[in-house]
Specification:
The complex is a heterodimer of chains A (324) and B (352). Chain A is of the alpha/beta class and 324 residues long. Chain A is 36% helix and 18% strand. In chain A, strands 3-2-4-5-7-6-12 form a seven-stranded mixed β-sheet, sandwiched between helices. Chain A has a five-stranded mixed β-sheet with strand order 9-11-10-13-14, with helices on both faces. In chain B, helix 1 crosses helix 3, helix 1 packs antiparallel against helix 11 and helix 1 packs across helix 12. The N and C termini of chain B lie far apart (75 Å). Chain B is globular and about 65 Å long. By secondary structure, chain B is α/β, with parallel strands linked by helices. Chain B has one domain: 3-Layer(aba) Sandwich (Rossmann fold). Helix content of chain B is 43%, strand content 9%. The chains are: A alpha/beta (324), B alpha/beta (352).
Chain lengths: 324, 352
């Protein structure tokens, strides 16, 4: 065990998977000598060279679409896009090809690639660098969407994502990159892409969050000083969703708050609430509350902290549900 | 003042002229009579397949269909220039390529009748399925070629697209990657002059498509796309260049779509009868026939045999695809993921 941050954990996972499987290649803008804009791939070009750690032209569609071809022909490309807003042109290739190639070829081809995206806001970055776009990806049939929240789960989830036979969008909580350190095993391990984690057991209310919101939720709940017995769920994988863990928890507590950084309308939280309504409505003691970003363009850093859900808003929602 | 004149003259590479005469003996590939006959027979087969498809569509037996008529030399000449281990990445107009690579015609009809099973088994001929979003398949070929290079395989990837696709970003990003990483990929643009109703001149201010190769730092060849010998020669050379590690080539096959874009438009709305008539005089099949006649390897008996045989094969394919049992509705839940996630498993159960 070593204490490491999320950047180090992902770097180690990439290194170990590349050592284990020579078909794993990294592709992206500045992922080589520069080690990536967040230094996540630092040192890997030095170890694996030009043909395994590939600095591509500045072309997001080129990266994802060429990677699709590589994956069809036997490679396992792990692609990186620098910031959320730049991933949007890739949706065409993800939707029309990555997610459909297995279907279009009647199962004869598949696309085992990973798209790593530093996700969400909170690092005082420029415009278009801080969006939360998970819903765009979870709505695409044929791909999986993974949202680690900390160093330990990021490492295990990335290993599983690279080994998965289907395309995986891997959303790295960029504000957590260097914010926390955890004990992370040096040896390899996998965390399955269909399992949520009950971070803390409780009996009064369930709070569900993923990615960077997980840390905010835990900090918010600490401020309540044990006022309620709160069950915290970290989804880890958004598609496929571990519905059983969510439903079992809500059936037990009867109350739920969902926290998402993305805008409210049609956000992933809406899917969670619909699922709860379908499977656990009669267990509910109160309407499920959403704490979300607003339906506005992601504000620039001067205002982003007013947009991103914080402890005050989360605890207000918990109180609303508890006092219903 | 620097001269900003970027007009670049690519000469049209031609071997067989419109009268069926060899005008370039130096570059004429070494072909046995049987090879030439095979070219002719495949071109006729593609024409009959296509004509029948248009008829089947009018009768409601196929969905919207994109005709390849006029492009037989570009498609057959290029497809047979590839080796078995090479990959082909098609758009939606490449039925001639599919046929030449050996994909069963009944399965092509099956696909164009709305049954996805028609795109099965393409792994046995190293083909990707039909790609409908224009140009989106171009970078896939680059990735396939690159993977082959990284894996130490000898395969080359050939990708097909039209003049309209060269206006898309996918074309730019794909060809640019291929140039930067020197991957064994051959870009085959069938410039058929029309992207539905928009003419080639409205796609780009470039004099030619092929001159774009210069900007990407790769080889480019402009070839008479109605001359099967020239297309064969140019594609074979480009494929072997790629195979020997000398990088990608952009080939512009200068040709013409003789029919509508698809069965959903009417060419009379956007181009003149005179223009279509002029191109009919350049029909690639007629041209090859004239040559073969002058060489004494074509006569009326042979002609009848070739067309009769093509019609027999195509009517057999028609009979076969129409006698296939309809797909199971449960097929829609197949091949979405390697392992069906519980969500979809539940939806599947709801459906049942």
């Amino acid at each position: 065990m070593t204490r490491m941050n999320l950047v180090q954990a992902i770097n180690l996972a990439l290194k170990q998977e590349m050592e284990r499987d020579s078909t794993v290649v990294l592709m992206g803008e500045d992922v080589g000598k520069d080690g990536g804009v967040f230094r996540v791939t630092e040192g890997l070009w030095q170890q694996f060279g030009d043909s395994r750690v590939i600095d591509t032209p500045l072309a997001e569609v080129g990266i994802i679409s060429v990677a699709i071809g590589m994956a069809i022909a036997g490679m396992k490309p792990v692609t990186e896009v620098q910031f959320d807003g730049f991933s949007l042109p890739m949706l065409d290739q993800l939707y029309n090809h990555a997610g459909r190639m297995r279907k279009r070829s009647q199962g004869k081809y598949h696309v085992p690639l990973v798209l790593r995206i530093p996700h969400g806001g909170g690092i005082r970055a420029l415009e278009h660098h801080s969006e939360s776009l998970e819903t765009f990806f979870t709505h695409i049939p044929g791909i999986k969407v993974v949202a680690p929240s900390g160093p330990y789960n990021a490492k295990g989830l990335l290993v599983s994502s690279i080994r998965d036979p289907d395309p995986v969008v891997f959303l790295e909580p960029k504000r957590v990159y260097r914010a926390i350190k955890e004990e992370v095993p040096e040896e390899e391990y996998e965390i399955p892409l269909n399992k949520a984690e009950v971070v803390q057991e409780g009996s009064d209310i369930t709070v569900i969050a993923w990615g960077a919101m997980q840390k905010i939720v835990r900090e918010a709940i600490e401020q309540l000083n044990g006022k309620y017995s709160i069950e915290i769920i970290d989804l880890l994988t958004l598609y496929p969703l571990d519905r059983n863990t969510v439903i079992d928890s809500v059936k037990k507590t009867g109350r739920c708050v969902v926290v998402q950084e993305a805008p409210r309308t049609c956000g992933y939280g809406a899917e969670l609430i619909a699922t709860i309504n379908e499977k656990a409505l009669l267990s509910l003691e109160a309407p499920v509350q959403r704490v979300t970003g607003y339906d506005v363009p992601m504000p620039l850093p001067k205002l982003e902290n007013y947009y991103i859900p914080d402890a005050t808003r989360i605890n207000k929602a918990i109180e609303t549900v508890m006092s219903f | 003042m620097p001269k900003n004149d970027i007009r670049i003259n690519f000469e049209l590479f031609q071997i067989l002229n419109e009268d069926g005469r060899i005008v370039n003996t130096r570059d004429m590939p070494q072909l046995k009579n049987d090879d030439i006959k095979r070219m002719y027979e495949l071109m006729v087969l593609a024409r009959v397949f296509d004509d029948t498809a248009l008829k089947l569509q009018r009768e409601g037996r196929l969905l919207t269909y994109a005709s390849l008529q006029g492009q037989e030399a570009s498609q057959i000449g290029s497809a047979i220039a590839l080796q078995k281990e090479d990959w082909f990445v098609p758009s939606y107009r490449e039925n001639g390529v599919f046929i030449a690579r050996g994909h069963p015609m009944d399965m092509l009809y099956q696909y164009w009748a709305g049954d996805e099973r028609g795109m099965d088994k393409l792994d046995s001929i190293n083909g990707l399925p039909v790609a409908i979003p224009v140009g989106s398949q171009i970078p896939h070929a680059v990735g396939i070629a690159w993977a082959n290079k990284l894996l130490g395989k000898r395969s080359v990837a050939a990708v097909y697209f039209g003049d309209g696709a060269t206006s898309k970003g996918d074309f730019h990003e794909g060809v640019n990657f291929a140039g930067v990483f020197q991957v064994p990929c051959v870009f085959i643009c069938q410039n058929n002059q029309w992207a539905i109703s928009v003419s080639r001149k409205k796609q780009t201010a470039s004099e030619t498509i092929v001159q774009k190769a210069i900007a990407y730092g790769i080889e480019g060849v402009l070839v008479d796309g109605n001359d099967v010998f020239a297309v064969f020669k140019v594609v074979r050379d480009a494929v072997e260049r790629a195979r020997s590690g000398k990088g990608p080539t952009l080939i512009e096959c200068y040709t013409y779509r003789m029919q509508n874009h698809t069965t959903a438009d009417d060419w009379k709305k956007y181009r003149s009868e005179e223009e279509v008539e002029r191109w009919k005089q350049k029909d690639p099949i007629e041209r090859l026939k004239k040559y073969m006649e002058s060489e004494g390897i074509w006569d009326e008996n042979y002609e009848k045999m070739v067309w009769d045989d093509a019609r027999t094969q195509v009517s057999e394919a028609t009979r076969k695809f129409e006698s296939v049992e309809p797909p199971s509705p449960l097929d829609m839940f197949k091949d979405v993921y390697g392992k069906l996630p519980p969500e979809i498993e539940e939806q599947r159960k709801d459906f049942e």
